Amino acid sequence: MKLPTAISCGIFVLATALAGSTTADEFPQKLTIATWNLEWFFDQYTGDNSAELAKKQSAPSREDWDWKLAGVAKVISEIKPDILALQEVENRRVLFYLNQKLKSDYKLNYRIAYVEGEDFFTEQDVAIMALSGLTGYGRKERTKEQWDDKKLYPLNKHIVADFAWGEGMEREELTIINLHTRAMSNGAEIRKRQARLTREWIKEHITPQQNFIILGDLNSDELATATTKDGDMGVFLGLDTPPTDDDLFDTLLKLSGEAKASHLNHMQYDRILCTDALMKDDPSRSDLVFKSSIIRRDLVVRGKEQDKDHMDIFWQIPQDERDISDHYPLVAEFEVK
């Protein structure tokens, strides 16, 4: 699958061009995809931070950073996702530290897909890490028409990645866009505009035949079972338009009740949304088909009970009681049929 040519990162264009002439990774027996907001995954060094908020939320000491790094790596090692989408990372350096920790302690060696974003208020970013299949990655940019369209709003924190496995007729391709959209209830209208921009960018790839996933911390207040066609999640899913062949499936619908909550406030901010091709088996060939999803709250909560609040008190919580993040990993498993 080729992404539109309006990709801003030259590295991505080069990588995509090279992908056609190289041998794809071996077709996996199954594919595990996870998304996780790490909650201020910032190291203790603030010399490269300009924003006061970023300095305030960074790890206060090397000891605190080592605790956070070890905790995040331990959670990832328990899941062992083939593809991991992350939000609230500081920069490529902390991703390097994370990958080194995963290699040394758990023998997991990820490739890192990262392009610096444009959230200069928080200095938070997004990234994708992959054990196999990664063929290219980059950021999207708005066209002049999209800049001028007031119904659209910029996505300062996003990354797009292409994957491929197998050869010939058995080659399976997948594209993922990892997003971290505007937070808070009063940001719903902005999230709708960000959703419209996302759909505009990827409309040629949201088809029943193509494997495409929108995932990340979408920050929506809409519950999976109460999504409205005019709400932010409704726009992400494609429910606001008459055609149904471009609708996406929300994998949270495979979970029940409180099991859908991915945040300590019991909201369902984190999502993995799939095209129809990933939900149905193609009987004529081997392909990826969604099997199940789960939220791994059990790996993040520490001590006697789940933390009730992290706002400005995270580093004051006793270490043995402090949860690794205020978000819990959402994990989707796909089998090869």
CATH class assignment: Alpha Beta
Q: How many domain units?
A: 1
Total strands: 12
Q: Structural class of the helix and strand makeup?
A: alpha+beta
Terminus-to-terminus distance:
20 Å
Q: Trace the largest sheet across and list its strands.
A: 3-4-2-1-12-11
**Which ranges are low-confidence, i.e. pLDDT below 50, for 5 or more consecutive residues?**
1-21
Fill in the keyword field for this structure.
alpha+beta; 8 helices; six-stranded mixed sheet
Give structural notes.
The chain is α+β, with helices and mostly antiparallel strands. It has one domain: Endonuclease/exonuclease/phosphatase (Deoxyribonuclease I, Chain A, 4-Layer Sandwich). The chain has eight helices and twelve strands. Helix 3 (62-79) crosses helix 4 (92-106). The chain is globular and about 55 Å long. Mean pLDDT is 92; it is low at 1-21.
Mind sketching the topology for me?
Elements (H helix, E strand, L loop, with lengths): L9 H10 L10 E12 L10 H6 L4 H18 L3 E7 L2 H15 L4 E3 L11 E6 L3 E5 L5 H5 L9 E8 L6 E9 L7 H15 L9 E6 L14 H6 L11 E2 L19 E5 L13 E8 L1 H4 L29 E7 L1
Parallel strand pairs: 1-2, 7-8
Antiparallel strand pairs: 1-12, 2-4, 3-4, 5-6, 6-7, 8-10, 9-10, 11-12
